[in-house]
Amino acid sequence: MGDRTDKTANTEIEVEQKFVLANSGDVSSIEQKLVSLGFKRNGPEVTFTDWYFDLPAPVWALTLRDCWLRYREYTSGDQTSGVWQLKRGKNKEKSRATVYEEIEGSNAITVALSMLGAEENIESSTATGSAADDSNTEDDTFEFGEIPSLPSGCSLVPFARFETTRSGWTCSRGDESTFQGLSVDLDGTDFGFMVGEVEALVQHENDIPGAQKQIEDLTKIIISPCDIDKPAIGKLETYLIQRRPDHFEALVEAGLMKALTN
């Protein structure tokens, strides 16, 4: 594979709300509404691969703290580039929108490793040894692609890998628009799941409530009324339900994901 590159480190607060995409008809309808509201497509659809990392089962020291370390990888020809990202959950007011601090670049790895205590690393080493013959261990299902490299001696392993094709949209009407600063992503994955997301990036915590209100107002316009109250789950959550049910159940018990309902 080609050379990997890493973007400059950066930290922002990400406010986002997911919404249901049942089929391609939903995508077409939403895109038409976005155009009418002054949004423009960011360019052609892009495809990228996300690798998610944590300590081996059953430790999961990062994700059980609502911290998500991933490597987002883009490939063009024989050139591969990407960026490390760490998303850390933040306390928020009552809202359907979630709030994360997002750290990009090599600093994402540094911060993630700083969160792992010596005791957790010992536990992960024990877990890795005891699971050596288990066909569901984290690192045996990724026969496609080169696993992104981490510092020598690091105990983190990939627990998820999937490809996303994204249609991205940004409000382009300027400061007078109610939705200035918002972006919308319409995603489809290589395991057949679709989901939409409205996102705002803010620099200060006191900007969070305003961003949440903007996001909620936009989703009420672009989403079909019959879908407004439907719970939307994310790509990674769906992946875990399908392929890592033990990890998903641990996150449900920690209050970080919702249990499935009939």
Outline the secondary-structure elements.
Elements: E1 10-20, H1 24-36, E2 39-41, E3 46-54, E4 67-76, E5 79-89, E6 98-104, H2 106-114, H3 118-130, E7 157-171, E8 182-189, E9 194-202, H4 208-222, H5 235-243, H6 245-253
Antiparallel strand pairs: 1-6, 1-9, 2-7, 3-4, 3-7, 4-5, 5-6, 7-8, 8-9
> What is the element string, with H for helices and E for strands?
EHEEEEEHHEEEHHH
The assigned structural class equals alpha+beta
Rg, Cα atoms, Å: 19 Å
Number of helices: 6
Number of strands: 9
Shape: globular
Largest sheet: 8 strands, antiparallel, barrel
Low-pLDDT windows of residues: 1-8, 130-137
Tell me the fraction of residues in β-strands, as a range. 25-35%
- Overall pLDDT: 86
Strands ordered across the widest β-sheet:
1-6-5-4-3-7-8-9
For the record, give the distance between the C-alpha atoms at the N and C termini, rounded to a whole number: 43 Å
Helix content: 25-40%
Structure description:
The protein has 262 residues and is of the alpha+beta class. 26% of the residues lie in helices and 32% in strands. It contains six helices and nine strands, in the order βαβββββααβββααα. The protein has helices spanning 24-36, 106-114, 118-130, 208-222, 235-243, 245-253; strands at residues 10-20, 39-41, 46-54, 67-76, 79-89, 98-104, 157-171, 182-189, 194-202. Strands 1-6-5-4-3-7-8-9 form an eight-stranded antiparallel β-barrel. β4 (67-76) and β5 form a beta hairpin. The relative contact order is 0.22. Mean pLDDT is 86; it is low at 1-8 and 130-137.
